[in-house]
Amino acid sequence: MQQARALEEAYVAERAAEEARSERERATQMANIVVPAEIAKQRAIIEAQAEAERLRENAKGEADAIYAKMEAEARGLFEILTKQAEGYEKVVQAAGGSSANAFQLLILGKLPELVRTQVEAVKNIKIDKVTVWDNGKGGASGHGATADFVSGLMRSVPPLNDLFNMAGLDLPKYLAEQKEQAEEPDAQKTREE
């Protein structure tokens, strides 16, 4: 019986040793799998945090650059507007302190550009390329269709006097007198009809 008991105890001890060895093996395998996975997880977290910080720093740098650019543009615009204001002040002084006269001086400076714009509006119209079939009979205006076309074309461009009026200026007297003389025969002709 003692031998059986000793055998049973040896069997139990061997079984306990086997379970302990199995547990050590499982712990080793877990350590070989879980620990590297945990390390990889921690590495991924650290890398993600580093990337987020890098993106934040880049965004902050870009925002600072945009702000600096806008601030420089605002300073430049302020300087331009300040210079313009100083220039306008000098124009008013040159016009004897009258803002209306200063306005007319400024408009006179723009007059060539305004006239150029009007000329550009009609300069590419090729009248020599237009074929008009006209029966020669007067329409409602008493003129032929061709005359009405050309007359309408000329009326589509504001006359010089209208241009001066839009600018707040008066046509020089010698031109106004010539215009009045040219209009008088038309006015007499209309009254006669």
Description of the molecule:
The protein contains 5 helices and no strands. The protein has 193 residues and is an all-alpha fold. Helix 1 crosses helix 2 (99-122).
Topology of helices and strands:
Blueprint: H1 2-94, H2 99-122, H3 145-156, H4 160-166, H5 173-192
Helix pairs in contact: 1-2
Please tag this protein with its features.
193 residues, mainly alpha, 5 helices, elongated
Q: Supply the number of helical segments.
A: 5
What portion of the residues fall into strands of 2 or more residues? Answer: under 5%
Shape assignment = elongated
- Say how many strands there are: 0
Largest sheet: none
**H/E element sequence:** HHHHH
Range of helix content: over 70%
Determine the mean pLDDT: 79
In short:
Helices cover 81% and strands 0% of the residues. It is an all-alpha fold and 193 residues long. The model has no long low-confidence stretch (mean pLDDT 79).
